[in-house]
Amino acid sequence: MKISVQSEDFDLGAECAALARGRTDIGAVASFVGLVRDANDGTDISRMTLEHYPGMTEKSLAEIVEQARGRWEVIDATVIHRVGELKPGDNIVLVAVASAHRGDAFAACEFIMDYLKTRAPFWKKEETSEGGRWVDARESDDLAAEKWKD
Q: What is the pLDDT along the chain (150 residues), one digit of tens a residue?
């Protein structure tokens, strides 16, 4: 399992290849890449700054992956979340899951992303033409995470 909170960009192809390298038991790698948008709620965004609580954030991400492992046959997973100042079009998050079968890979990837959006300790500030504003979790993110409750 790879968990990284970093300011540097990531390479989707390299990260997915690393998950399966040297393994013959992996039949599927599902991934999700989130990008910074240029608008939110009808307001143009010039940049976004992400902050986190070092140590606590990585632990939270690892716990989310472990929960996914408890539900699906996850062979390996990578979660990379960027912090610092980002601009529209920049990569912000990668979730990649390796499994023997696509169903487990897809479901675990979606679960990890849904829980990351609602439970990981990140703080986002958007810079707009009207000034800076902190971004709260969306109701739609909470609803997406609700579907995974037992």
A: 999 999 999 999 999 999 999 999 999 999 999 999 998 888 899 999 999 999 999 999 999 999 999 999 999 999 999 999 999 999 999 999 999 999 999 999 999 999 998 888 999 999 988 888 888 766 666 565 677 676
Which residues contact residue 109 at a Cβ distance below 8 angstroms, ignoring those fewer than 6 apart? Answer: 30, 31, 32, 95, 96, 97
Overall pTM surpassing 0.70 (yes/no): yes
**What are the helix (H) ranges across 3-101?**
12-20, 56-71
CA 4 to mean position of chain CA atoms:
10
- Helix segments in the chain, DSSP class H: 12-20, 56-71, 102-119, 139-146
Give the integer Cα–Cα distance in Å for 81 and 92.
Answer: 6
Strands 84-86 and 43-52: antiparallel
The upper half-sphere exposure of residue 52, i.e. CA atoms within 13 Å in the direction of its Cβ, equals 23
Q: How far apart are alpha carbons 90 and 113 in whole angstroms? A: 18
DSSP code at position 24: S
